[in-house]
Amino acid sequence: MNILKFFTAGSVDDGKSTLIGRLLYDTDSILADQLEALQSSNRKNDDGTIDLAILTDGLRAEREQGITIDVAYKYFQTEKRKFIIADTPGHIQYTRNMVTGASTANLAIILVDARNGVVEQTIRHSYLVSLLGIKHVVVCINKMDMVDYSESVYTNIIDRYKTLAQQLKLKDVTYIPVSALKGDNIVQRSARMNWYEGESLLHFLEKVDTDNLDQSQLARMPVQWVIRPQTEALHDYRGYAGRVLSGTFKLNDKVTILPSGASSTIEKIEFFEQAPEAAHAGQSVIIHLKDDVDISRGDTIVNASALPQESKLIEADLCWMDARALDTSIMYVIQHNSKTTKCKISEILHKVDINTLEKHQADEFRLNDIGRVIIKTADALAFDLYDDNRANGSAILIDSRTNLTVGALMFRAAVE
Amino acid sequence: MSTYNFDYLDELEAEAIHILREVAGQFEKPALLFSGGKDSITLVRLAEKAFRPGKFPFPLVHIDTGHNFQETIDYRDQMIERIGEKLIVGSVQQSIDEGKVVEQTGKNASRNALQTVTLLDTITKYEFDACIGGARRDEEKARAKERIFSVRDEFGQWDPKRQRPELWNIYNGKIHTGENVRVFPISNWTELDVWNYIRREKIELPSIYFSHQRDCITRNGQLMAASPFLNMDDDDIVINKQVRFRTVGDMSCTAAVESEATLIDDIIAEISASKISERGARMDDKVSEAAMEDRKKGGYF
C-alpha cells in the first residue's frame, strides 16, 4: 500500500464539497465531530438524503465569517491506498492557497459543472496544475444528473477541454462523468451512464501510477544535519543525514558535493541499525563518504555523472503570496531545500493573466500574481529545472522583515 | 529500473525524519514535548531513527500535572533510562505553589487547562525556539489546516489568519525573538497509521492503553478512573470495569472505554471496526475521543 496525494480546486458551486464529502463518506473516513454534525443537521438535499457538503463545512464557515480561507488536509484510506487530499478553495483570490495545495500533489481533480462546461475558472485551475507540474489530471464532469446523464453534453465538454490540455501541455488527462450528489461514478460505476466505459473515480485513484518516487538518474541529497557522536567508540564517525530528493545512491557510487565541487565515493549507507546497499528517492538516510571532505548543512550530495545546474542568476516562475507587494529594490532570502541565501528579484519578464493565459509586461507583483522573473542569488544554487526534477527545482522566498513566506519559485532556466 | 519496498508507513516515517532533522538544522534550542501518550512515544522512535548513533539535538520536555497515571510516569522514567536522553519536567504543582495558576474547584475540577501556563513558563525559562509535538491533522477541523511548522507568538498563541504558506517539502522556520515554532512531524498520520506503525516497530506502550480491570465512576456519561485526584462525593458509585484508555492525559479528565483489547492487534481491530460499523453506533466513544483531543489542543500542544 502506498500514498496518493491529490488536490482539488473548485468552489462550493461546482460541487467540490459534495464530491469530497462523498469520497470520505463512502470510504468511512468521517471524523466524529463531523459525523455528529451530519446526523443532527437539518440540512438535507431535495430528495431527503444527507447533504454531504456539510463534511467540508470548515471552509464554508470561514467564508461566512469572512476569515482566511485556507488549505485543509483530509485523509482517507481504502484497502489499496492511503489518500491525502489538499482541499483548497477555487476563487481567484485564493490562488496562493491552490498553489500551496498543489505543490505536494501527484494528481489534480478539476471539477467542471456539466451545465456550464469549460469556464474561466477551469482555465485558471488547469493553468495552475500545469505550472506546478502535477503529473495526472482527472477532469470530473460533475452534475451529470442535471443534464439527464447526456453523453453528448459530456463529449462536447471533453472536446473543448482537450484543446485546453494541449495548449497547457497537460499530458495525462482522464475524463470521468460524475454526479457527486447522487454518487454516480464516484465509488461505483453508474448504471445511469452505460455509454461511459471507463472506471469510477475512486477506482481510478486507487490504481493510478503514483510515481512520486522519482527513479531518474538525478541522484540528489541535500545535507540537513551532520551526525558526529564524538564518543570514544565512535570517535571518527561522520554521517551526513538527509532525505534523498530524487534518484538512487548506491554503495561505491561516485558523488560530487556542491557547492564545493569536491568528489568522493559512497562508503556506507545507514538507516537506523541497518546498512542498505542503496538509498532511493523519498528515503531519509545517513550517507558516509570515503574521503574526509568538508560538508555541512546546505550542501548537496549528487551523482557525479549527472550534475545539476549551478548559477547565481536563474529564470523562474514566481507566485506572489504576500499582501505586501514585491519590492525589487530589497533583498529577500531564498530557501532551496536545506540551503538559504540572500537574493533579489532583478527583473520581471512578464506576468500571466491566469484567466486568459495571456502574458503581459508588468513592473509590479501583488498577492496571487504569477509570472516569470529573473532571480539573482548571493551564493550559487545547485538546482535542476522544475520540469525535470520538481524536488530540486523549487524554492521559497522569505521576507526578512516579517519572516513570512512571500513567494513560490519554480526554476525554468539558468541565465547564461 | 530498480524497484524497492517503500510503503505508506515508510513514506510517513521518512517525511517525519526529514522534519525532525529540519528542526535540528534550523533552530538553536529545540525541545520535544513528551506526554507519555502513543503519539509522543512514536516521535521518540522517529527521533532515534533521525539522529542515532548521535544524541538527540534536543531534550524531552514533560509537563507533569501531578495527576498522572502512575503507569505513565513509570513508562517515562524507564524510557529515558533506555534512550539516555535528557528529560526536563515542568511541574503544574510548582506553578500552583508559586501562585501562577489556581487549582480548579468543584466536581469537574481538572488540572488540564493549567498545563498551558506551565508549558509556556517552561518554554520561556529554557528559551526554547521550537517545540516538537505529536498532533495530527486528522484530529479535527482546525488542526486540518495547521502547518507542520506552526509559528506561535510570545503568548503561545496560534493565529490561523497569519499562517505561512507551506510549499513542497520546504519548511520556513525563521522567527522573531520571543516567538517560537510548534513542529508537528506526524501531521499527515492518522490514528490508525500511528497504531500500525507502533505494531510494525514493536514499540512498547504504557499498560493503560490495554484492557485491564479498574475501579471507575461515571461522570457526564463518561467512565473515569476512580482516583484521589477526582473530587468524588456520595453520589458517585464505584464500579469495577474492564477498560482501556485511548489517550493518555491527566487522570481527572481522561475517560476510559470499556474494552477487551489486550494486544495491539485487538486495538487496531477495535479502531477499524468503529470506522466501519453502523454509523453512530459508537457515537459516544467517538464524541468523547474528539472532546479529549480538543482538550489536548487547548492545553498541551
Automatic annotation (TrEMBL), chain A:
One of its GO terms (molecular function) is ATP binding. Keywords: ATP-binding, GTP-binding, Nucleotide-binding, Nucleotidyltransferase, Transferase. GO terms for biological process: sulfur compound metabolic process. The keyword Transferase applies. Its EC number is 2.7.7.4. It is an enzyme of class 2 (transferase). Residues 1-213 form the Tr-type G domain. It comes from the Bacteria. Pfam families: GTP-eEF1A_C, GTP_EFTU, GTP_EFTU_D2. NCBIfam families: CysN, small_GTP. This is sulfate adenylyltransferase.
Automatic annotation (TrEMBL), chain B:
Gene3D superfamilies: HUPs. Residues 30-255 form the Phosphoadenosine phosphosulphate reductase domain. It holds the Pfam family PAPS_reduct. One of its GO terms (biological process) is sulfate assimilation. The keyword ATP-binding applies. GO terms for molecular function: ATP binding; sulfate adenylyltransferase (ATP) activity. It is an enzyme of class 2 (transferase). Keywords: ATP-binding, Nucleotide-binding, Nucleotidyltransferase, Transferase. Its EC number is 2.7.7.4. Belongs to the PAPS reductase family. CysD subfamily. NCBIfam families: CysD, PRK05253.1, PRK12563.1. PANTHER family: SULFATE ADENYLYLTRANSFERASE SUBUNIT 2. This is Sulfate adenylyltransferase subunit 2. The lineage of its organism: Bacteria, Pseudomonadati, Bacteroidota, Sphingobacteriia, Sphingobacteriales.
